[in-house]
């Protein structure tokens, strides 16, 4: 329940609406009790043929109570829901503010479907904190105390029976059913998160699954998970229905007991017969209002679990160390010292005891076969992956003390898979620099050899209407619009032919001539232009030096170069 504390604070921030909700709820509840008890008294009193003026007064009271109850109930709904919507808005803003700075780390730990389930489904579940957990018990307790105090004026025994019935209905029965429902609800939440992740992967990989004729198998897995989820929901609803039915039965039995007890008191002469209907109606009305309270344990646990899942995302934010006041105005020098990173459940480290010295303003290529650890080194440098051991320094500053915003602001990055947004070519170029004019954007397109693309040309989701080469050249056009002291290029030209690749690399190196450049590649084109080449294999650096130095060695780089030349000759 500790996880709920920050969200409950957000509720109490809406003090005015919360107070008005409680006040309106109390008035609605107590007038409902008064309305039905007055109706019972009116019926009993009318049977004695009193003066018409007396009946008119009672009828007027009944009408006034009815109007007051309806207006108060509307006020309760209005203020409680307004407070809830404001609270949800504040929660969403709070979650976004905490997750946005560490979004890259979260994406590495959780699937997109699970994240979506947490920031949408779990946040929505927190609306029950106010509507079902916080203010209803206060309203119900105040109504019950006022009702019992009123009932004791006529029959202490009836008040005792009501107290016993309320105790069983609000505490004993809900607790018994909650214990049996708790395990089912835990399973529901786990299945819901699994379903969200599975369905997101199914949607994202639909084309590949269809091409490889594996769609039906994956679709069946999704259907089975949906069926499992529905079965668990039905079981949970069944338990809830039995709980409601049991409480309803108990309420009826208490009302019957009150009727017999009051009737006995009337027969004994200890109670006026005219009050019999009044006491019965009080009992029926007050128990009618406790049904929503029976679900309080369920909503409390649901909200607490939702808050805990959101808090587990926010814990990433606590790992961010204070930002050192760093000003990067020139090319950056980088140092890796004994850096090791091992992913969970992996037999060997992704990179192991990596030592790299990258002088300020130098051009460094990190090469190796696919899966050798090249991209992992780049991700460590960009703070996309936390390393386990060693130190990484940029211009003498420990990487962990530099905020991601500061690092990324001073870095020009091209990833293996660049994202393209639905919109126009202009929209996707302005992701880099919002103040750039159309003439500059058009020049960047021409420099990236994309003269056929117009700024208003449409780009579909993930750039599906662009070829692989067009995507990479559009990403290069983005790079040309920014100046930065550090350039990290991860396979920027793998989808281009050899001649175009050579021209694009020359263009990038020319534009970044005063910056520090790190080129990640498994191809060896253009490496003679680099100041140093680092060869990575199985997460370890096995060779390093200039192009000429590595060619003179009979090592891994020379073998890769010879194999690549042989492949080109065969083509």
Automatic annotation (TrEMBL):
Topology relative to the membrane: Multi-pass membrane protein
Domain ABC transporter: 334-563
Positions of transmembrane segments: 18-40, 52-72, 133-154, 160-179, 241-264
Domain of life of the organism encoding this protein: Bacteria
NCBIfam families hit by this protein: CydC
MF terms (GO), sorted A to Z: ATP binding
Cellular localisation: Cell membrane
Pfam families registered for this protein in UniProt: ABC_membrane, ABC_tran
ABC transmembrane type-1 domain: residues covered: 19-302
Taxonomic lineage of the native organism: Bacteria, Bacillati, Bacillota, Bacilli, Bacillales
InterPro entries: AAA+_ATPase, ABC1_TM_dom, ABC1_TM_sf, ABC_CydC/D, ABC_transporter-like_ATP-bd, ABC_transporter-like_CS, P-loop_NTPase, Type_1_exporter
Protein name as it appears in the record: ATP-binding cassette subfamily C protein CydC
């Amino acid at each position: 329940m500790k996880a709920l504390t920050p969200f409950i604070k957000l509720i109490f921030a809406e003090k005015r609406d919360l107070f008005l909700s409680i006040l309106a709820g109390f008035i609605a509840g107590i007038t409902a009790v008064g309305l039905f008890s007055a109706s019972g008294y009116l019926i009993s009193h009318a049977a004695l043929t009193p003066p018409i003026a007396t009946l008119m007064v009672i009828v007027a009271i009944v009408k006034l109570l009815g109007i007051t109850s309806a207006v108060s109930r509307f006020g309760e709904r209005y203020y409680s829901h307004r407070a809830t919507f404001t609270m949800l808005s504040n929660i969403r803003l709070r979650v976004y503010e905490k997750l946005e700075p560490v979004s890259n780390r979260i994406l590495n730990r959780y699937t997109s479907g699970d994240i979506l389930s947490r920031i949408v489904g779990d946040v929505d579940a927190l609306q029950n904190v106010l509507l079902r957990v916080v203010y209803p018990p206060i309203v119900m307790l105040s109504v019950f105390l006022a009702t019992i105090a009123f009932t004791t004026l006529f029959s202490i025994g009836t008040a005792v029976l009501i107290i016993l019935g309320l105790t069983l209905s609000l505490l004993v029965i809900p607790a018994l059913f909650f214990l049996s429902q708790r395990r089912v609800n835990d399973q529901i939440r786990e299945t819901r998160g699994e379903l969200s992740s599975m369905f997101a992967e199914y949607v994202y990989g639909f084309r590949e699954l269809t091409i490889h004729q594996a769609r039906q198998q994956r679709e069946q897995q999704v259907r089975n998970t949906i069926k499992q989820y529905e079965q668990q929901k039905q079981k949970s609803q069944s338990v809830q229905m039995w709980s409601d039915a049991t409480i309803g039965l108990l309420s009826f039995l208490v009302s019957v007991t009150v009727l017999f007890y009051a009737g006995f008191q009337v027969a004994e002469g200890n109670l006026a017969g005219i009050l019999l209907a009044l006491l019965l109606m009080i009992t029926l009305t007050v128990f009618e209002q406790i049904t929503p309270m029976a679900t309080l344990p369920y909503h409390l646990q649901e909200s607490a679990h939702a808050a805990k899942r959101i808090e587990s995302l926010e814990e990433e934010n606590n790992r961010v160390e204070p930002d050192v006041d760093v000003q990067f105005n020139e090319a950056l020098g980088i140092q890796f010292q004994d850096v090791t990173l091992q992913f969970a459940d992996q037999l060997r480290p992704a990179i192991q005891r990596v030592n790299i010295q990258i002088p300020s303003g130098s051009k460094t290529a990190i090469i190796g076969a696919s899966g050798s650890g090249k991209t992992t080194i780049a991700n460590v440098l960009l703070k996309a992956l936390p390393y386990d051991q060693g130190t990484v320094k940029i211009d003498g500053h420990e990487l962990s003390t530099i905020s991601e915003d500061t690092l990324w602001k001073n870095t020009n990055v091209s990833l293996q898979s660049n994202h393209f947004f639905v919109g126009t070519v202009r929209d996707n170029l302005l992701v880099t620099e919002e103040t750039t004019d159309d003439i500059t954007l058009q020049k960047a397109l021409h420099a990236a050899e994309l003269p056929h693309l117009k700024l208003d040309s449409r780009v579909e989701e993930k750039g599906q209407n662009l070829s692989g080469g067009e995507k990479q050249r559009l990403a290069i056009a983005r790079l040309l619009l920014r100046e930065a002291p550090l350039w990290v290029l991860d396979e920027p030209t793998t989808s281009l032919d050899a001649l175009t690749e050579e021209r694009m690399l020359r263009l990038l190196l020319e534009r970044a001539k005063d910056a520090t450049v790190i080129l990640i590649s498994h191809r060896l084109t253009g490496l003679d232009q680099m100041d140093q080449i680092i060869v990575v294999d199985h997460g370890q650096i096995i060779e390093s030096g200039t192009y000429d130095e590595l060619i003179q060695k009979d090592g891994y780089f020379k073998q890769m170069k010879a194999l690549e030349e042989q492949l080109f000759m065969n083509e």
